[in-house]
Write a structure and sequence with these properties.
homodimer, 432 residues, alpha/beta, Aspartate Aminotransferase, domain 1, Aspartate Aminotransferase, domain 2, 2 domains, seven-stranded mixed β-sheet, 12 helices, globular
Chain lengths: 432, 432
Amino acid sequence: MTGPSSLLERRARLLGPNVSTFYDEPVHIVKGEGVWLWDADGRKYLDCYNNVPHVGHCNPRVVEAISRQAATLNTHTRYLHEGILEYVERLTGTFDDPLSTAILTCTGSEANDVALRMAEAVTGRRGIIASDFTYHGNTSLVSQLSRSNVPGVGNSDWVRFVPAPDSYRPLGGEAGMAHARAFADAVGEQIEALKKTEHGFAGLILCPFFVNEGFPALPEGWLKPAIDVVRREGGIFIADEVQPGFGRIGSHMWGHQRQAIVPDVVTLGKPMANGHPVGGVVTSPDIMSAFRNSFRYFNTFGGNPVSCAAAMAVLEELEDKDLVSNARAVGDYAQARLRDLAQKYDFIGDTRGSGLIFGAEMVLNPATKEPAIDFTDRVVNEMRRRGIILSKLGRHKNTLKIRPPMPFGTEHADLLFETLDDVLASTPLHHG
Amino acid sequence: MTGPSSLLERRARLLGPNVSTFYDEPVHIVKGEGVWLWDADGRKYLDCYNNVPHVGHCNPRVVEAISRQAATLNTHTRYLHEGILEYVERLTGTFDDPLSTAILTCTGSEANDVALRMAEAVTGRRGIIASDFTYHGNTSLVSQLSRSNVPGVGNSDWVRFVPAPDSYRPLGGEAGMAHARAFADAVGEQIEALKKTEHGFAGLILCPFFVNEGFPALPEGWLKPAIDVVRREGGIFIADEVQPGFGRIGSHMWGHQRQAIVPDVVTLGKPMANGHPVGGVVTSPDIMSAFRNSFRYFNTFGGNPVSCAAAMAVLEELEDKDLVSNARAVGDYAQARLRDLAQKYDFIGDTRGSGLIFGAEMVLNPATKEPAIDFTDRVVNEMRRRGIILSKLGRHKNTLKIRPPMPFGTEHADLLFETLDDVLASTPLHHG
């Protein structure tokens, strides 16, 4: 038996309890191509969710690069190999000065784990500030940056949290730069609090597009006051680009470039090699030297020739197919269609996003902005039943999360919004 | 320019300082096949060192599995997929009861990072004991298990060390079971010390073949007194099988089976998928439940269909080619040849190992056992110049580390030992 219920039973037995799945009826996916997925019954789904297969499921260029290099050589960085050098040269070429050096890891979690040690190497201190509704990864250390996680081995009193920005419900009721200054003040307060501990203040880590927090609409320069405070206090700014990076936001290659900020350290993950396990940390030569002189670090699989070939194929595909421009064009088209839906349905309280990360916030009442949590969940599950893969996120889990592979076109957006319109029209706002 | 000096310059510029390479003259490897490697000048090397390409460099079955699955589907475990279930079922089938569940990660470091949280979930305590000459990985937490590492973010006072066993220079001067009881006493002392701290005692983590420590020759049952102490004190035993596992030691599939011990948690890495980034944690349903109920854990790339296909191909290849038996037979042959060399050369103070992990300890004087550190280094570098890839390890870095891919045959052992004999005969013991 290979039906979903048999698979769920085997999962529980072999993988243990609480291994999360998506949807009330989990999907049994067996095949992918471009923006499409197929389940075991041959049913086709439009993938409007997965960011890991960045240049499309089973992208032929990436598959070919992996297959060719796996058949030629796969080894580690204690031997010399051009693959890692050519990749890091091309990757760092997409960043602003002085971000010109990199460490390659296998996951974004490992990348953030290294970034925290870079902050310590540079500042001699350990206190880190993060947003109160974020996720930066799964190592014992990095998982403590998520307020929703139970602290593990080692204490977590070196982490302090600031309220994540929310453009729909701004801090203090004010949007725009007043909101930005309030955020900077909150960062400053936590710096003061850390300075009173043995840890001191080492740095601030943020997703520069606040994707997990619900990708609030923030004007360019919004982050600058907070980063100014961080630097004035001798800390570093770590930009976690695992979600907004590699051109997803359409307007720029990296989320921090949209904010006209040059971070001290940038961390990379998920989309980097289209699903092949690759992560990375990009920084300046000075910070890299400080880290390399303070900590011993070797990653057996990190930067191996196959991983570098896969990651290089992603950069080549992004450039050859002009996928960042595609993300901008299709994203603009999608946002216009989202706004049309918002005109039609009162329960769409807000629409926002950039490029191929966009969504709508569902509310029970536009005046009170009360989140339509259960409704959003039912919409997501009904979309899955109709063959559209998407999800929800944000503090109230009432924001549709639409984040398709980068080759997503307007014809795919049309299918998505026609189905969504239909589902929104037929799903009762209040559960019967 | 692509010569070694140009590559070293580019490495320093792009990857930063202190990125380690092997050998005085680093090797620029471009191609691999089975137990062979080729450099950029077309020179062929016999690989007597690399354990990551476990079933041979570019093993066709593994390459085919990766290529096929990468072209079909690569996604994450929040959808249902048979790949991870079939793999975990087959993998756990090689372990003793009750080790029947697994978490798949991308690296051995991530696996050990999870294992420490399992110890905490089960015991409610955090204090860990490790050997004083080991390495368990590179996350900020796990790197603190190596005494040679600088502690990073978070304090490391939850780690205590016990002297690693040394069969050539046994603790208290006694080999065998007296040595085992002395080791157990040392573990007991550190448990008492941890119990006096806020951390308490959670567990002991060891490589059951003590590979980094120089793979001492220990009789079956040697570890039992120490594990008995651990369990009596309510702690768990974590066996790090990253190096001895997957049949390398020839006598058993897993290092702990040679010690007739069933660990509470087993961690896996390097050889698991022949270089594709895969690691894992195998444990009992009870410990898995405790972990899954205490900590949130999701690993984006962990257990993806391509990783599982690669890992499954390794298990299939091990079985189809009977590579564990090969490791035993070739290992026995190699040890006999090593003993012949020890008869011939006084400076070989000890020979030891099991299966395809073996080596010889070099001393300046067999009576005093003074380590021949510089000599060993010169031998390793001269072997590289003669086309044989091997290394050195142990507390004094005076033990040859010979750990070839599993398809290593007696004909390869012949070439290794003929060359080694020649190099030992022509390398002066004291540097001119």
